[in-house]
Each structure stands twice: as C-alpha cells, then as structure tokens.
Design a protein that fits this description.
2 domains, alpha/beta, about 40% helix, Rossmann fold, six-stranded parallel sheet, 14 helices
C-alpha cells in the first residue's frame, strides 16, 4: 500500500474548509495509507490519533504566531524522522502559507519523494505574501520544488506561476456532499438572505448590511463568527437595521442544510476568494447565489449578463457595491421563474463537477496515480 504524508497547519477537531476537504478525499482513497503532521493547538488534542483514514501526528502546543512560526521547522524535522520509519511515497502540503515551508524543507532533504502542493488559500494574495516575508526564500521554494501543484481554481493556479512554478498544474476544486445539502425549501416568514462566512473584511458582510436600507422587510442571517462582528453590529445599528440582521454565530457544518432550506437567497460579495465551498453548498441546497466574481468564484459563478456564453449559475455583483447587491436581490424576487432556471443550472453543475466522489476520483487519477507511477 502506498503511503502519503500530509503537512497541514490544522486538522480535526479544528475545522475549516481545507480540513473538511482533506478528510472527504482521504476517506474515499482507502487504498492509500495517509499520515499527517499538524499543530497541537490545545492540551486536549491527542498527540497521535487516527481520524478517518489519516493517522494524525500533532506537535507543539499553542496557536500563537510564535507557535505557528516554529511549526514550519518542527514539522519538517518530525516528518524527516517519520520518513525513516514509514518510507513515504509522496508528500502533500495543504496551503502554501500554512504547510509549504515544511514540505519544501522535506523535499530538499528527500529529493526522490514526490511533493504535491495544494493551494486552498482564500485570503488576498498580497496579504498572504506579506505574512510570509520572514520565510520568503523557503516560501518561494514551496512552489518551485513541487512536482505538481493542485490549486482549487484558475486564480490560484496563476499565483503558482507568478511564484516561479513551471511544472504541471491540476485544477481540482473542493466539493460538497450533494446528498447532505439537497432538500426542499422550508416555509418561513418574509424574505431571508443568508450567508455562511467568517466575519472578516474580505467576505464583505458590511456591504450586505449597507444594502439593507434599500431592501425593506428583508432579513439577513449571518452564520459564523470573526473579528469584525462588533464592527458589523455597530454598522447595523448606525443604519437602523439591527432588527433585520441576525448574528446566529457558529453553526456545525452538519446543521447548515437546515438553515439554508429556511432561506431565500445566499449572499457573500467577497472582496477576494480562492475558491468558496460555501457558494457550492448553497447551490446544492437550491438557493440562488449572489456573489462577486473575484478570484476562484469566476470558475463556477456565471452571470447571464456578464457571461452570455455560459449557462447562468448565479447573480454577479461588483465588489464594494451595496447598490448592486440590492438590485440583484430585487431581480431575484421579481423574476422567480428566471431565478429558478439559474438555480437548476447551478444544481446540475454541482452534481456533475463538485460532488466529493468526483473530486476524490480526480485526485486519484490526475495526481496520486501519476506521481506513484
């Protein structure tokens, strides 16, 4: 059985989109033995345990910037020692800024072991590169030493080229458990906009709140937490829409379909986006989606006016444009038949291209099988 070592800054029980993706893929590739080196964020996290099809090795303890900096070197050394015992057939780094440096160091020490760089980043590229300046030479080598780069989107693939990578690129997006999200709408009062989002500047929740004065009687539900929560609440109060903005807080991923089926429109007018699994989940759930076409969103969110050569799958707005958000909501509500056709297109696309079974098959055929061969 082939063995693959995964480098990831975080893993279960500390879960984001990248961690969900790794688990969904590895659970389906049962003929490969996966190990992982990741951070131990708290004393309650076991130093070693099996999570699904991954044997997780946690190192260090803490989540400060210092701990994350030290992880870059500690992870490489732990992986080097593990390799002496396990003889890995490939390594797989999940996100360049989180795990690319230890993967690059490992590749320098073990040139014969193929190395996959998975780009999952959603924050603005300029911000990511600024944070990596203290490790810049190694950060660049995280790209240039890769045997294959597997970005989630065309946008992230272009980033790899700007960092000097010249090898093969296999664009394989994250997916969705289509069966989990498909369902019938649940009756509810009024018009409900919904988002599943970290409350950070790049996700532009402030633009949605700013659109609400132009959308009387429309409620906005925000599922998620983040550093901008207090500022967003202050903005809602200033604009007089506090009663129509519901900060639901953290919601377990398994409960998301229940909330989505009680809403009318999904919205997240991102200022940057590497891919955006939340949008694909909303499409699977049967909601019309309002979003920008920033970054990776342009790969799957097609607008009737902006992309006349493609079947529309959503409603595109420019970033930083509350007025366009309000207009898009009004269009969807005024033209339910047209919106329904867009929803059908989006659901068909998700079922064809973004189901986890399809994603895992592509990882096997287009990445692992080629490297093992």
């Amino acid at each position: 059985m082939k063995k693959v070592l995964i480098f990831s800054l975080a893993y279960y029980p500390h879960v984001g989109g990248a961690e969900v993706a790794v688990k969904e893929i590895t659970d389906r590739l049962t003929d490969i033995e996966f190990h992982m080196v990741t951070m131990r964020f708290a004393a309650a996290d076991a130093p070693q345990e099996r999570v699904g099809n991954v044997l997780v090795h946690r190192i260090g303890q803490g989540s400060s910037k210092v701990h994350k900096f030290l992880f870059q070197f500690h992870a490489a050394w732990v992986a080097h020692k593990l390799h002496k015992k396990e003889k890995f057939d490939a390594t797989w780094a999940v996100m360049a800024h989180g795990a690319g440096v230890p993967a690059a160091l490992f590749k320098i020490w073990h040139k014969d072991v193929p190395y996959i760089l998975n780009l999952q980043e959603g924050d603005p590229i300029a911000h990511i590169e600024k944070t990596m300046l203290p490790l810049w030479p190694l950060f660049v080598r995280a790209f240039t030493l890769a045997d294959v780069v597997q970005p989630l989107s065309t946008y992230l693939g272009a980033w790899a080229r700007t960092r000097g990578y010249k090898g093969p690129i296999e664009i394989i997006p994250n997916g969705v458990d289509v069966r989990q999200f498909v369902g019938e709408p649940v009756p509810h009062q009024g018009v409900v906009l919904i988002t599943t989002s970290r409350l950070v500047h790049k996700n532009a929740m402030d633009d949605v709140i700013a659109a609400l004065p132009m959308l009387p009687h429309v409620e906005f539900q925000i599922l998620g937490t983040g550093s901008e929560e207090d500022r967003l609440k202050a903005l809602a109060k200033k604009l007089g829409v506090t009663e129509r903005v519901k900060f639901v807080g953290y919601v377990d991923h398994a409960q998301l379909p229940e909330y989505l089926h009680k809403a009318d429109i999904f919205i997240r007018p991102s200022r940057s986006e590497g891919f955006g699994a939340s949008f694909v989940e909303a499409m699977a759930a049967g909601l019309p989606v309002i979003a920008t076409q920033e970054g990776g969103l342009a790969d799957f969110l097609f607008d009737a006016k902006k992309n006349p050569d493609k079947a529309p799958t959503g409603f595109a707005v420019d970033k930083n444009s509350p007025a366009q958000i309000a207009e898009a909501v009004k269009t969807i509500l005024a033209q339910p038949q047209q919106a329904g056709e867009v929803v059908k297109n989006a659901q068909a696309m998700v079922q064809e291209k973004y189901d986890w079974d399809t994603v895992a098959r592509h990882m096997r055929e287009r990445v692992f099988s080629k490297l093992f061969a």
